[in-house]
Design brief:
Chain lengths: ~200, ~100
């Protein structure tokens, strides 16, 4: 009978894989949005767990422990990724004028007519709508600069506070605020054009 | 009371953010509390600006839907379509046995 793992032992790795691999994979995939990368992360997580199994003395649930290892690896990945992307790209993205708003005359700062948000009629209590939402959000995430998308993921999916993101990833607070603002603006727009308002593509 | 009202009004009138600023403030408000003046300013702006009002609601919707989706995939007993292939699992098991 295999109801629980003996404390301090990954004595049956097969059991652990059967029980947790899919969950860890889903977790990784939603953050990383790349299948191969997510698979690698799951593998590395199990390997790391095997190595440090002595430190798992049953203080938390097995799942929590494994997710903790995975989460740290994901954050490490985002940290490296953030460093690699040239700061030039980020600056371009940030300094690009906000094309959604008027820039001259009396209407400076107001919504341009063709950029005004439209009504969204979403029933977020409907599971099918939530699935569809996610499908389109993933598409939209792939269309904004990767670094911006990663930041959005860390904040909204991983649930890190701004301060934590700054500390873990090494981005300064002002840039972080700008990146989140841009991410939200672009994602909202992309969702509106491609999902909500499909017939009115610009 | 009249004095407080007029000070309040004068203060508010001197700070009337544009739609562009309001979208930025809305985003900031989702990560940390805004100073009172800004917080009141965007609420006031949204009373009269339906587009910023929609924008704000939609950012909230995106956050809400993201959380709901997260809750779905977090459910370990969920039998979802997203899973590792048996091949990969076998490879993983072999790897761990070494």
């Amino acid at each position: 009978m295999r109801n629980s793992i003996p404390k301090g032992g990954m004595s049956d790795p097969e059991f652990w894989v059967d029980k947790y691999a899919d969950y860890l994979y889903r977790y990784a995939l939603t953050r990383l949005r790349e299948k191969r990368l997510a698979e690698d992360m799951v593998q590395e997580t199990f390997l790391a767990a095997l190595k440090s199994q002595d430190s798992f003395a049953g203080q938390s649930s097995e799942k929590t422990w494994l997710v903790g290892i995975l989460k740290n690896k994901i954050i490490d990945h985002f940290r490296k990724s953030h460093r690699e992307i040239s700061t030039e790209d980020i600056e371009t993205f940030q300094s690009a004028g906000d094309e959604d708003f008027e820039t001259g005359g009396n209407n400076t700062g107001q919504w341009k007519i063709n950029k005004r948000p439209v009504d969204w009629m979403i029933d977020s209590s409907n599971p099918a709508e939530i699935n569809e939402f996610w499908k389109f959000l993933e598409i939209c995430l792939s269309r904004i600069p990767k670094q911006i998308a990663d930041i959005f993921i860390l904040r909204e999916i991983e649930g890190l506070e701004n301060k934590e993101i700054c500390n873990e990833i090494g981005v300064n607070p002002t840039n972080l605020r700008v990146m989140l603002h841009r991410a939200r603006k672009q994602l909202r727009r992309c969702l509106e054009v491609n999902w909500i308002d499909k017939d009115d593509k610009e | 009371m009249k004095k407080i009202k007029s000070i309040f009004k004068a203060n508010m009138m001197s700070y009337m953010p544009s739609c562009e600023e309001v979208t930025r403030l809305k985003s900031d408000s989702m990560d940390s509390g805004l100073p009172l003046r800004q917080s009141l300013a965007i609420k006031f702006h949204m009373l009269f600006c339906q587009w910023c009002r929609k924008y704000g609601k939609q950012l909230d919707m995106i956050r809400d839907a993201t959380r709901k989706f997260k809750a779905k995939i977090n459910n370990i007993d969920n039998k979802p379509s997203i899973a590792l292939s048996p091949n990969i699992k076998d490879r993983l098991k072999n790897l761990l046995k070494e």
